[in-house]
């Protein structure tokens, strides 16, 4: 196996998906509290008001991480806990929770990896226009500064944004996620740009506080593009679909819309041709600030599409074979997903890549023997990690893998229908049960992947 000696193994969660305690200790509603409280927005009208009750059960959850021997844990902070008015007064009680959590992780020998924004915007800022309003950048700076001030002595791994493609696209274009809007492209372009500017400003704040001691990343997502064969023409065709504008997906799902500005300081020319006219006036002046040097590119990948080169070399999508394996959420199981996406990113940007999310949902339950048998997740993980190993063997600089998720949780508009965890959660009793896949992943961690064969 090619996993380097210091490869980082971990599992990931996000605040709204696990914490519950939605109105405790001074927290105000986030856009997800408001969205999920509206009838018809989530599966069975379920909300994250209680979720995994992690806000109260964090000690038990750290003990489970310890049992799984996880070296690293990726979580996010809820902005409305820290700054209940979105900006201004800091709520120390909200920060106390994360401070206790970080202490508990460090005591257990688990490295905290902190995401600043995993979608739970304070509703009061949404009311001002959310990411459309450039004033949000200043609010995000205040929020970042408050988190760093309190936790920055103990946390050194930071991620600014999780999946802008989703909170912009699913949230404000398709309306399937919070805040549930259908905005036109002229407004979406402003959101994209404001998120990027906020990323750059947060990076400056982090760097000023922690210098080289801090490792700072940005976490986009997309679908992997998988060449049908190892023929260089197919590889080039897949790379083109991965990075270039193509009518097969909306513009905000083109990963380079976010990653080229962050890692190269420019919007890609083909995308600029489509949205350039809609960007805020003077956007060019922001590019240097957006592209401050950061330490890694995170990537969340779950599935992929197969691509081949046509006779003219142009990409052609290979038709889907009927009945191909799918997870419960109906995402295709494509073994080479982690072989190609991370490699393409590594080649284009020359920064270390960390897989910050990957996993699958299935309909797990506690069996009569009291255990949770989830052989499909083990097989999925095994296949995907073999793909990742291949990318590393091929020369891509990939430095870590975080499984999504540590435990079953509130899967956004799919709510509790989908189970992504290495740990099963019975939401009626909040009882946790480590799944077979959790123990299997522990072996991967213990052997640094040598058990993958
Ligand atoms: C990603 C999200 C994460 C989780 C997984 C399944 O898009 O970042 O919160 O919902 O999908």
Strand content: 5-15%
User: Ligands in the structure?
Assistant: beta-D-fucopyranose
Cα end-to-end separation: 7 Å
CATH architecture: Alpha-Beta Barrel
Q: Characterize the largest beta sheet: strand count, sense, and whether it forms a barrel.
A: 8 strands, parallel, barrel
Unreliably modeled segments: none
Q: Please work out how many helical segments DSSP would assign.
A: 16
Structure summary, number of beta strands: 13
SSE diagram, text form:
Elements: E1 8-12, H1 15-18, H2 31-36, H3 54-67, E2 72-76, H4 79-82, H5 92-107, E3 111-117, H6 123-126, H7 136-151, E4 157-162, H8 164-172, H9 185-210, E5 215-219, E6 224-227, H10 232-243, H11 256-264, H12 269-275, H13 287-290, E7 296-300, E8 304-309, E9 315-317, H14 337-349, E10 353-357, H15 375-393, E11 398-404, E12 423-426, E13 431-434, H16 436-447
Helix pairs in contact: 3-5, 7-9, 8-9, 9-11, 14-15, 15-16
Beta-D-fucopyranose (FCB) binds at residues 14, 17, 162-163, 166, 221, 300, 357, 404, 411-412, 420.
Structure description:
It is built from 16 helices and 13 strands. The N and C termini lie close together (7 Å). It is globular. It has 453 residues and is of the alpha/beta class. An eight-stranded parallel β-barrel has the order 1-2-3-4-5-7-10-11, surrounded by four helices. The chain has a three-stranded mixed β-sheet with strand order 6-8-9. Helix 8 packs antiparallel against helix 9. It has a single domain, classed as Glycosidases (TIM Barrel, Alpha-Beta Barrel). The longest helix has 26 residues. Bound molecules: beta-D-fucopyranose (FCB). The site of beta-D-fucopyranose has 12 residues, from loops.
């Amino acid at each position: 196996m090619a996993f380097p000696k210091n490869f980082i193994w971990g599992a990931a969660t996000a605040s709204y998906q696990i914490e519950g305690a939605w109105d405790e200790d001074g927290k105000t509603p986030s856009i997800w509290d408001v969205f999920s409280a509206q009838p018809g927005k989530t599966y069975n009208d379920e909300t994250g008001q209680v979720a995994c009750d992690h806000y109260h059960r964090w000690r038990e959850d750290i003990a489970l991480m310890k049992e799984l021997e996880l070296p690293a844990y990726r979580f996010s902070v809820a902005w409305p806990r820290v700054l209940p008015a979105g900006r201004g007064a800091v709520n120390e009680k909200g920060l106390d929770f994360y401070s206790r959590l970080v202490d508990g992780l460090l005591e257990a020998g688990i490295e905290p990896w902190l995401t600043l924004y995993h979608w739970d915007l304070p509703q009061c800022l949404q009311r001002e226009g959310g990411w459309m309003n450039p004033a949000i950048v200043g609010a995000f700076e205040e929020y970042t500064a408050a988190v760093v001030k309190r936790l920055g002595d103990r946390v050194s791994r930071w991620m600014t944004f999780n999946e802008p493609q989703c909170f912009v696209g699913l949230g404000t274009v398709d309306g399937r996620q919070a805040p549930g809007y259908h905005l036109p492209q002229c407004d979406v372009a402003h959101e994209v740009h404001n998120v990027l500017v906020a990323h750059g400003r947060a990076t400056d704040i982090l760097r000023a506080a922690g210098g080289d001691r801090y490792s700072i990343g940005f976490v986009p997502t997309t679908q992997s593009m998988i060449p049908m064969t190892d023929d260089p023409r197919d590889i080039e065709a897949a790379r083109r679909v991965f990075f270039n504008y193509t009518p097969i997906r909306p513009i905000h799902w083109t990963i380079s819309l976010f990653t080229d500005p962050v890692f190269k300081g420019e919007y890609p020319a083909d995308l600029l041709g489509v949205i350039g006219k809609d960007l805020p006036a003077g956007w060019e002046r922001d590019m240097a600030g957006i592209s401050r040097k950061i330490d890694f590119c995170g990537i969340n990948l779950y599935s992929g599409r197969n691509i081949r080169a046509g006779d003219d070399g142009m990409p052609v999508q290979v038709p889907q074979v009927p009945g191909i394996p799918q997870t419960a959420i109906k995402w295709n199981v494509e073994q080479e997903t982690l072989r190609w996406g991370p490699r393409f990113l590594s080649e284009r940007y020359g920064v270390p890549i960390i897989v910050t999310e990957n996993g699958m949902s299935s309909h797990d339950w506690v069996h009569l023997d009291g255990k949770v048998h989830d052989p499909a997740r083990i097989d999925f993980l095994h296949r995907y990690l073999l793909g990742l190993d291949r990318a590393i063997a091929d020369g891509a600089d990939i430095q870590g893998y975080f499984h999504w998720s540590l435990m079953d949780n509130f899967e956004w508009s799919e709510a509790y229908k989908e189970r992504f965890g290495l740990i099963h959660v019975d939401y009626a009793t909040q009882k946790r049960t480590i799944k077979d896949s959790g123990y299997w992943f522990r072996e991967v961690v213990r052997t640094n992947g040598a058990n993958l064969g």
